[in-house]
Amino acid sequence: MERFVQLVVDGLATGSIYALLALAIVLVHRATGLINFAQGSMAVFSTYVAFAFVQSGLPVWLAIVCAVVGSFVFGAFVERVVIRRFEGGSHDVAVVVTVGLFVLLAGLSGTIWSYNHREFPSLFPLESVSVGGAHVGLRNLGTIVVTILVMGLLQLLFLKTKLGLALRAVSGAPTSAALSGIPVGRMLMIGWGLAAALGAVGGALVAPKLFLTPSMLDFVLVYALAAAILGGLDSPVGAVVAAWFIGVAENLAGGYIPFIGDDLKIAVPMALMFLILVIRPQGLFGRKQVVRV
């Protein structure tokens, strides 16, 4: 039983890392209708900024706060200067632009801070506590708690605030939203800014578990995209639940199925994800789109 609890909690902590990037992807999609493939490299760039603040002598929590604020401004800048030039055309072109941003920011991070591995300090203590007989690190618990808080705040933003309703209106029908008096351009900037800030939080939580490198989140982004699609690209709750499902499923498969182990454990949640999407293409919490013809 102790091993089971250990695997589940570790899987939830790993899934929470996927969830933070998945939430950023969902946020951009709900605001603009696009999937941002540059989300991982934007988060890494923000983490390097936080690392620079730490090196200058700031406490780690203050460095992360400064990086999050800077990331919001940077995300809004990217939308205003780069993405907006392509938003009126094909979505395929805009998606390709985000792929180009991914390559550009990864190269820029390596050029400025080098490609050497760097250690990033943890926001949470490294001690562990006993949960059901298993030893659970406070860093893992902190990551889970932060993910739950972010998910709840995003859900409140979209469902209970005028800003969230405006973001949803701009994503669903930008022309109608503009005719209703909603500043479409400003909403798109805010959406990208919030997603970049959220990515900075995810990067700061991932970096202490890994070495900080320009490619730190490349593989995590694959899981995050899978979680966002599985949960439903318009559902913050769905993205988190799907990310937890992926994290726990791969941990349990690697721990209890001998021939799978660590090398093939990712195949289990991906296979289950494929089956779920065949049955429910809009994702676990996504909504079917009804089109009038």
UniProtKB/TrEMBL annotation:
Q: What is this protein called?
A: Branched-chain amino acid ABC transporter permease
Key words of the record: Amino-acid transport, Cell membrane, Membrane, Transmembrane, Transmembrane helix, Transport
Entry's family note: Belongs to the binding-protein-dependent transport system permease family. LivHM subfamily.
Where in the cell is the protein located? Cell membrane
Identify its membrane topology class.
Multi-pass membrane protein
Recorded hits in InterPro entries, A to Z, give: ABC_transp_permease, BCAA_transport_permease
Residues crossing the lipid bilayer are: 6-27, 34-54, 60-82, 94-116, 136-158, 190-212, 219-246, 266-285
